[in-house]
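During the first year of the project, the team set up a workflow for recording each protein of interest as an amino acid sequence followed immediately by a discrete structure-token representation. This format lets reviewers and collaborators read both layers of information side by side without switching files. As required by the reporting guidelines, we include two representative entries from the current panel. The first entry is reproduced here exactly as it appears in our internal archive.
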Amino acid sequence: MEITWGPLFVGGLLAGWGVAVPLGAIGLLVMREALAGGFRAGAAAALAVAMVDGLYCAAAVLLGRAAAPVIVSWGAAPALCAGLVLVALGVHGLMRRTAQAVVSDRVRRPPASGRVFATFAGLTLVNPATLLYFAALTAALPPSLGLEAAPLVFVAGAVAASLSWQLVLVALGTVGGGRIGVRGQTILSACGYGLVVALGAAAVIAALAALV
């Protein structure tokens, strides 16, 4: 069967945008990172998010229909662990931003790109819902699309879509950096990390409820 890469790449684009475009905690934090640290810091955050989305997409494509059932068979444990990690990361972020606000009158040095990348990679990795999304989506794709013959084309489309959207958020944050003061940055940071804590708490509560 002859495989046309165009539709497969477009399918990956649509899948990646489906994950990335809904603005949540990660999107807010990417914007805040660009707003506070400039385009370089924001781009590092955007690249981390897109790379993890790509890893989850690749895992779903390679594991195929087996990915979602395996995770589901683990019961509430993945959601409970992910929720606890999200709460810890969110609280740490809130405390760190509060400490920075106390010394906001000092000149802030741009954050190291490696540290930003690691932080956002960790935040994105602890969201197994992304893997489930890609697993369900790839299982529903028609065989005529040729996913099994050229899976990397689909994954490349998903990564490109995620990165393009994250860079849009970075651009918005960079433009707003000169217009939003320290107070605005603190509020945006609190909203982002607060949402991370809320999502983590919700995951923990749901996981504990499932165990009862």
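The second entry, processed by the same pipeline in the following quarter, appears below.
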Amino acid sequence: MLASLPLPPTLRLEVPGHDGIVSVATSPEVVQSERESGTVVFDAAEWSALVTGAESDRVFPAELRDFCARKAKQPRWSLDLDVALSGARASAPVGWTVGAVLDRLGVRLVAAEAGGAES
């Protein structure tokens, strides 16, 4: 969904229960820069796992908050599909919009950037 856009997007999110902004970035350079600055960041593969987990009724606000806490302590930890699904099988892709996924995760979109631009 995000990876198919013509420029690599970065989403800035407020996650209830997590201090600071959380980023979702599809550009490897932005992911590295965000990690180096101490920002919790989910890359394109992790975003895909979050989407599949949300669509499969396995990832909710509490799980996302836990993933953010883990990434804050271990910035190089990577969320994979098995963790997002908590051992369950993925449902057939639903094709939710980004907004629907963000609603399911209980987050607020603060900013959306294209091409790695700074806000």
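For the second entry, the following points were noted during internal review. The longest strand covers residues 108-114. The chain has a mean pLDDT of 90. Both points are flagged for discussion at the upcoming steering committee meeting.
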